[in-house]
Fold this sequence. Notes:
By secondary structure, this protein is an alpha/beta fold. The chain has helices spanning 31-42, 49-58, 66-76, 83-94, 112-124, 140-148, 188-211, 224-239, and strands at residues 19-24, 46-48, 102-106, 132-137, 150-152, 159-161, 215-219.
Amino acid sequence: MEMHTVCKAGSRGMLTNPGPILLLGAPGAGKGTQAKILMAEWAVPQISTGDLLREMRKDPVKSISPLGQQIRQVMDAGKLVPDELVQAIVLERLQQPDTVKGYVLDGFPRTLPQAAWLDATLASGPNTLPVVAVSIQVSYTNLLRRASGRRNCPVCARIYNLYFQPPLQDTVCDVDGTPLAQRADDTEEVFSERMRTYDVLTAPVVAHYRTQGRFAEVDGELPVGEVTQAVIDAIVRLRS
Ligand code: AMP
């Protein structure tokens, strides 16, 4: 990858090639939302291991294999899929040509061994930029509401939140009246387990990037646009 270049003043991002960006944050901190905005901002892909694993679960062949069933059980319990498996999925994704200018990692690395693997993989590849990490901070109470209140329409895929963006009537979709569904790992019980997993396994990943000076923190309770601006400013600073 060529080194990042700076474009005209006035552009929100200033960077044209942002390189590998890592968004960190507890479940529900808004990593996915911010990753999608950055993706549009810099025309780079979002690489979400949660989404890639959910796609595998939907695949009619992979989902019924023993591995597919193991993944389902682990995810539904709020635990982590084995490092080697997630790393293999990420490696395959990083080899796609759309990653050349950079990409936004969302949900990976989530353990110290995954972080070490990523650093080593990038250092041994043609990519000249190391990962920069931005952590999105949200209080436990708000994280719980974001996760346990989240509902989606199984027909039109519209997303609601019973606390922050409720449907007009009960728990049915405003658009087509379909009863709303909840992701299996958004229940309060699974949320608590995911938070425990985050505290034990992912907090050291934050420390890893912080120690290396490739790390910034932003307030994830601000309005979405302000969080985006803070994330972009942090990335530009870390790349300068
Ligand atoms: P997410 O949508 O990022 O919250 O991920 C949903 C679930 O997928 C997690 O609770 C884990 O079971 C699994 N998962 C996603 N990313 C990883 C990862 N980097 N390492 C291990 N498991 C993961």
